[in-house]
Amino acid sequence: MATPLISIVLPTYNGARYLQRSVESCLSQTFGDFELIIVNDCSTDDTGAIADGYAQTDPRVRVVHNAFNKKLPLSLNTGFEQARGTYHTWTSDDNYYAPEALQVLVNELTVRPEVDLVYTDYYLVDEQDRVTGNRKFNNIYDGFTEWLGCGACFLYKAELFAINKGYNPGAFLKADGWPGKEASVGPAGPAIPEIRSIQRSQEK
Fold it and tell me: Which of these, 33, 43, 184, 189, has the minimum number of CB atoms within 10 Å of its CB?
């Protein structure tokens, strides 16, 4: 199997309600050179069956079923330890990408090889997919102390995972912000002023 350019990790726990929408948004990307690694964190609903169904029909999808409930940071580490891509990103079971998200991100990293991380803005939606707001991010070049980090739509070089020794298990409930100020990140590109993903603003 050819090595993909991008590895997407999708950690999920009891995410059956929205998982199909999230996975479909990955598989329908205009940029297709990626692998999707779904990490099922001991779900008790239909999450595992849904994930396995995609792996059986699309060779880009792999599923890892955790032997015990690892929570988010360790589940991310489990997924990225198996990742083969040059670039890494991850998404949540209740978020979904706009169709051109990966293309926009990889284009920016391709034309700016000195940059380690790129990111975009995103919409917030409720449980009925109604837009409730958006998140816009500033540029790191505006000043590191004023940098807001990045949100739900980002792409970074795979070596950052090794440099930072993975995601910090002690940062549970803060992991959504990584890569962020607590991580070792090289040059970050300017924020791409486009909305390319959707994040749910309501709990499942």
Answer: 184
